[in-house]
Design brief:
The protein has about 290 residues and is an all-alpha fold. The protein has one domain. About 80% of the residues lie in helices and about 0% in strands. The protein contains 13 helices and no strands. Helix 2 packs antiparallel against helix 8, helix 4 crosses helix 7 and helix 6 runs antiparallel to helix 13. The radius of gyration is 19 Å and the shape is globular.
Length: about 290
């Protein structure tokens, strides 16, 4: 039993490590956010397609409302990727990832509008804590400042990510997660095809191994292991462990990119991540 639990913890943390490495790769590869989204989506689409064929799973989504929700969530996912990649490239791995991690509080704010549930007043306090964290990370609102651009783009990415997750919620209970992700990656591939002809692609071949790593390991394999491992943990526990993603990302950026976050980023980021712990703990308690 103990060995099984250790294996489950290892799998979950390994998946988070793989997913976290995406930020470092995005920061390292000198391609536009749109091209990165195209290649990441195309490679993950092929990998998941082969996986579904191997598993002999159905590709059908028969419900028209489910297909519309999938299309809407895919568009939101595309916006999330582009704004997140831009945040990483224009600022740093630390600022990009920590700004994205405002999404749990943003989700809590907009979820009542999606599902007609009561608003929880404690989320106001958590939102205030997030705003303090963002202010500490960038005390001067200057739109010519790269850190400010990164934070704003990261928060927009968090909004799109929260909306995408809420839109996907109904579908997730009815259809296999691999099938849903397959169609989302297919959407990415199709939508971002024009950017092959618009953006500068001269560096693509030089960074193909890194693009393959981004699509296969950090996306297809990382997210598949993560979804698989969730069944072994309570949602709150998984949320707390998953909040270590920015920590993993910052450490990897320090090792491979020599990016050392300043004290303001660390303090502000700690406040933002604390909201995830608080919300997860209170949810578990209730």
């Amino acid at each position: 039993m103990k060995n099984t639990q250790l294996k489950n913890i290892f799998e979950l943390n390994f998946s988070i490590l793989l997913i976290s490495s995406a930020a470092v790769l995005v920061r390292f590869i000198p391609l536009s956010p749109s091209l990165l989204a195209f290649w990441r989506g195309a490679i993950a689409f092929v990998v998941l397609g082969l996986y579904l064929l191997y598993q002999k799973k159905s590709f059908k989504i028969t419900d028209k409302k489910a297909r519309l929700r999938l299309l809407t969530s895919s568009a939101l996912f595309a916006l999330h990727w582009v704004t997140y990649f831009y945040a990483l490239q224009v600022s740093s791995v630390a600022i990009g990832m920590l700004s994205l991690y405002t999404f749990p509080v943003i989700t809590a704010f907009i979820e009542p509008f999606y599902f007609k549930t009561n608003f929880n007043k404690r989320h106001l306090a958590l939102a205030a804590l997030v705003l303090v964290g963002l202010y500490i990370m960038s005390p001067e609102i200057n739109f010519s400042n790269n850190d400010t651009k990164g934070i704003i783009s990261g928060v927009f990415s968090a909004v799109f990510f929260a909306m995408r997750n809420l839109t996907m919620k109904s579908n997730s209970s009815r259809y296999d997660s691999s099938l849903l992700m397959f169609y989302q990656f297919l959407f990415m591939w199709i939508v971002f095809i024009p950017f092959i002809f618009i953006d500068d692609t001269s560096e693509t071949s030089n960074f193909l191994p890194y693009l393959l790593g981004l699509g296969i390991f950090t996306t297809a394999i990382g997210h598949t292991i993560f979804v698989k491992s969730l069944k072994n943990f309570a949602v709150s526990t998984a949320s707390i462990i998953a909040s270590s993603q920015p920590v993993f990302g910052i450490i990897l950026a320090m090792i491979f990119l020599n990016e050392i976050p300043n004290i303001n980023t660390l303090i502000g980021g700690a406040l933002i991540l604390s909201t995830v712990f608080i919300e997860s703990y209170l949810n578990q308690k209730s």
